[in-house]
Amino acid sequence: MIFDKAGENVFDQQRVVGKPQRRIDGPLKVSGSATYAYEQQLNRKLVYGYIVGTQIAFGKISGIDDRKARSAEGVIDIITYQNVPEVGTGAFLSAKALGGPQIQHYHQAVAIVVATTFEQARAAAAALVVHYKRENGQYSLESLAASAPLSKSGAFRPEPVTSLGDFESAFHRAAFKVDETYTTPDQSHAMMEPHATLAYWENDLLHCWTGVQQLNWGVRDLALALGVPKEKIRMRAPFIGGSFGVKGTVMSDTVLAALAAQKTGLAVKVTLQRPLVANNTAHRPATIQRVQLGANPDGKLIAIGHKSVSGNIPGGRPEAAVLSTRYLYHADNRLTELKLAELNLPEGSAMRAPGEAPGQMALEIAMDELAEKLGIDPVELRIINDTQFSPEHPDKPFSKRNLARCLKRGAEAFGWQHRSAKSRQQKTGRWLKGMGVSSAIRGAPVMPSAARVTLQSDGRLNVKTDMTDIGTGTYTILAQTAADMFGLTTADIDVQLGDSAFPESPGSGGQWGAASSTAGVYAACVALQEKLADKMGVSLNDLSFSNGQIVVNGKSVALQTLIREGEISAEAKMEYAESRKQFEHQTFGAHFVEVAVNELTFEVRVKRMLAVCDAGRIINPKAAENQVLGGMVMGLGAALMEELVVDERLGFFVNHDLAGYEIPVHADIPEQKVIFIDDVDEYAGPLKAKGVGELGLTGVAPAIANAIYNATGIRVRDYPITLDKLLASSNSI
């Protein structure tokens, strides 16, 4: 099926889609019945693998002494680069899952010890001796920033340079200017479930249970790493305990579990210990960003410049921090630039709202700094520079853009009129109070997605697709989609996800999951409806569905009467017409924050947070609200505490566990509220819906930074905004 534009359809009735629904997988999760990758049980012997990470960041293995480890109790085998064929890389990540002899980064896997029990494998791993020849590596982004070359374009790599008009000349003549540098640190995904895999071979078919967001990527990349046809791999991920992007494809746990299972002929369980999650897998890379804004006295931007440099291992991608600037505000003269330094730190890759989240952490502070220089309210400045056309392509309209509406609605709901335009003006006891605002933007892509729906003999409808649920509520929204198509309730729908043997979806990621996978289910439902119409000898246009009945020319027929001879199944795939490219597809929002800062200690307490989101039809407001609330919590962490600290002598992240990597806890989280703009997007897909989970993060951190400035008069441009940075600047106010 080819989608062009959605007209009036069943989803406009807001019967099931659009109504808040409890997650149908919720009872399984709260009862502990949901079976994650590491918890799978098989009717065969299970053994355990323990991954050994390298203790150097760059260099070579000069020797491996495994004699003591091999003689340890319960050890079945030890796998290194010396006794298996060379392991390749997939199409998304550049680091090899098994290092040796060359080492690419700290904690790169150099061995997997397989034993009868986990404890035996861990003990033997401690006895494995690996000798290294350490080489000098590059671990400081700051030292390489000035000489970093432009990044290269390619898959998931935006153009390194974009320009429009004459930026330099316009910026030079601007009446009001901002020209500042902002930094964001390396960050960890810090999801609850560590990377884990259960793998075994049955003849020449590899079976894997693993927490991979995009099974099509996972199968592809595992096949490339092992050098086997992807048709020889079946991958399952029915439940995933969080990811934020780091489980987009297979990591060392899956590759090494597959190798160990192949070499031993046994079913092998592997989980990464928490320190390896930070250094062995991937992270959000640090950035150094220069933002230049030039405006006329009326607040209209005439020049926008945004340059960012990040670092990665050879072959890695840049953190595309300038993406938001390319779409957010109008200015006739523009320049954006991405540079990429070569570092020998662990690989940088996708983390929730890659590019947009750190980019807005800089741009949206710069907008506040400009507003202060102009003497214009920060909300009003953003509205003045709103546009309905792509800033870099003025002849290309947005399919839907309600940024100004989000800002106005949020300002009214938050009580923005009570904010003092001047900092350090509001105080309760020793607590300085302030408010901050930020615009938010995140792309709204869709991908081809397929599904199979089956009307079963018991009258229930079964939905199958390899789409995953990473805690976002996918099971429920697909059930809602199918329920509306056949006049059923979600209780009548069985949804099966996360199996590469099912019809292919794009998986969870990039904020494309919800819109894409529901469209695939819609296409399959239409195909099944057509089969039912043929069976009844009528046109599909003559049918409607309500309360488990098919209505034809005013007469109702129970669905079950059509399946007396057996179940009926249909499979279809949703693809998209070229006309979609005529529009720019994005989601928009606004974040408002109130903080209190102790005037003596500079302790920051976030008091209130509000997100206003424009993301088309909200399929399940309950689940969507939870997604946005979670994004707001993550944004608070990015603003105030999250930082992977780099040891620039030895090239690793020092605080590589949940004890040392600071993330928000319940006591940090204030009153939160989410408002959804009620406006559908006919060009987004058949449900007129877009993703919203990453929009809840973008813009949160700068809104907090702006609120801190409003409270204290201290402008911190280096995240996270910690006590020491505020104290260091306190003498200047």
Rounded radius of gyration (Å): 27 Å
Strand order of the largest sheet: 4-6-2-13-10-11-12
Terminal residue distance:
62 Å
Q: Overall mean pLDDT score?
A: 96
Structural class: alpha+beta
Q: Total strand count, please? A: 32
| Outline | globular
**Strand fraction:** 25-35%
Helix content: 10-25%
Largest sheet: 7 strands, mixed
Number of helical stretches of at least 4 residues: 17
Low-confidence stretches: none
Brief characterization of the structure:
The chain is of the alpha+beta class and 733 residues long. The chain is 25% helix and 27% strand.
What does this structure look like?
The protein is α+β, with helices and mostly antiparallel strands and 733 residues long. The chain has 17 helices and 32 strands. It has a seven-stranded mixed beta sheet, sandwiched between helices. Strands 1-27-21-22-23 form a five-stranded mixed beta sheet, with helices on one face. It starts with a strand and ends with a helix.
